[in-house]
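Retro notes, item 3 of 5
We never archived the inputs for the SAJ complex last cycle. Fixing that now. Sequence and ligand:
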Amino acid sequence: MSRVCVHGLGYIGLPTAAVLANSGHEVAGYDTDRAVRDSVRNADVQIDEPGLDELLRQAVESGRLTAADEIAEARYHLICVPTPFDEETRRPGLEYVDAATEAVAEVLREGDTVILESTVPPGTTEERVRPVLEESGLEAGTDFGLAHCPETVLPGNILAELRENNRIVGGIGPESTEPAVELYDSFVDGAIRTAEDPTTAEFVKLIQNTFRDVNIAFANETARIAHDYDVDTREAIDLANGHPRVDLLSPGPGVGGHCLPIDPWFLGVGSDSLDLVPTARRVNDGMSAFVIELLRELLGDLDGAKIAVLGAAYKGNVDDTRKSPGLALARELREGPKTPLAAADGERPDGPRVVVHDPHVEDPSIELTDFDTAVSGADALVITADHDEFETLDPRALRERMSTPNVVDTKQILRLRRWRDAGFSARRI
Ligand code: SAJ
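Structure as it came back at the time:
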């Protein structure tokens, strides 16, 4: 069992630190945010992830996970910091990776292994992280190990996937790859595959998320085409997927989260060959406009109507609102489409009244309404996240409280026949 320092205690770093500790390692978790360190110390997690509370409590109570105020020496350094996306330049901010790397360089010893898990453009580990670590006077691949091992966990199912998913480790030579594989081997049940070098591992992570984004774009475009032919998209996709080599994903209100809408752009940092990828991004970002089209079919003019958007999280049963399609829809309904020619500037006084409700999200920076206020007097409900709470909504009770009974289900969680029987006009994607 080894001493591991985990840098960054967010969605990935914190569960990883807890799993490592519960697998017997001695783990020091470091985060630049003091409040995060304190919450880990008190085993009081602020992330809505099933099972994480209990896992963290065990790890802290066992004494094997501590929150460190200073970065200390460790056999392994695991860098799990965010790489925030700049919408204007469409490039990742690598400042947190740089800061963590500089901090590790201060305490790096011969025989240690540094593993970068953060999602980065191909080449980052070798061209950006390596030279800073080598300022210590030690050489990567000889004196210390340096590898990239991308995280692949799905928010909402992080704990199971940390153990079960296959991992890819790309190190600078066997002196890097072998100790990194050994660490993952101590808690991963899935296969651990090695890549030729860190750049390959970085590239693989990006094409995985881009594969999903591009395929969702095809599902979304299919929904729009099906609508033009008056074909039920879901029925068509279900039938199409009966073919042994066809597997369409699900259309929806757009693609959110901090991975799929962003990672495809990381591929473009060092390549001019992207063509399909940006088109897919545009298709997925255009889904708010399609939802608005469906609302217009139901309501006619939207001006003055009250629209309740149900779902501020980017997907079901999580509290994460990053790049949320529900919030993008609410913004577009309030402000009109953002086009280069007519950039919208704030709420239109004569537009629809839009309220957003989400039982999973508690974020003071987002204006949310409780359920009763959201639905009372509403002219339409739009489901934008497949939370369990929304599946069991009772259309008969809702009809009494709404002004006009209309519903758009973008996540296919409602049994629309039941809603129509209750008097609703309904559309789904
Ligand atoms: N979505 C659809 N249709 C689908 C599937 C998803 O519209 O058929 C939407 C979701 O509603 C959501 C978005 O796509 O808005 C992304 O959700 P997701 O569940 O596909 O993925 P994430 O962003 O939660 O996590 C992804 C995962 N990557 C892949 O599945 C290839 C996860 O394994 C990665 O670890 C994670 O990105 C990451 O951190 O990179």
